[in-house]
Give the backbone structure.
Amino acid sequence: MNTSEFCQTVNTTRDTLRFYDQKKLLVPKRTSNNYRFYSKDDIQDFRIIRNLQNAGLLLSDIKMILLLKHKPVTKNCHEETLRVVKQRNIEFQKQIDFYKSLQDITQQIIEVMNDSDNTDLEILIDKLGDVKNTY
C-alpha cells in the first residue's frame, strides 16, 4: 500500500513515517519510482513501535527489539538485548503494581460512595497520594 493508504490504516502522519524511516525503525520497500510501499508486516511493526513507545521505551530499545524479530540474535548482541528486555520487564511489573494499587483504591472509593456513607472518603482519597510510583 502507498503512504496515504498506510497512514489511514494505522492512523498516523507522513511525517511520523518519514521519521521512523530516517531512524531505521520502519523501512518500507521502494517502488521503481522510489515511492514508499508498505506491506502488512509493516502494519504490525508500526503497532509494535507505537505500543513500545507508549510503554516508555527509547527508540534505540525499540529498534533492538524489532531487530530480534527480523534477524537472529548474535552472540555479540545477546547479552545487551537480554539486559534491555529484562529491565523493561521489571519496569512493566512496577507499572502494573502502581496502577493496580490505584485501581484498588478507586474501587474502594466507588463502594463507599455507592453506600452513601462518605465517612471514609477523605481517608481513601488521601491514600491516592500515598501510592508509591517506583517506575
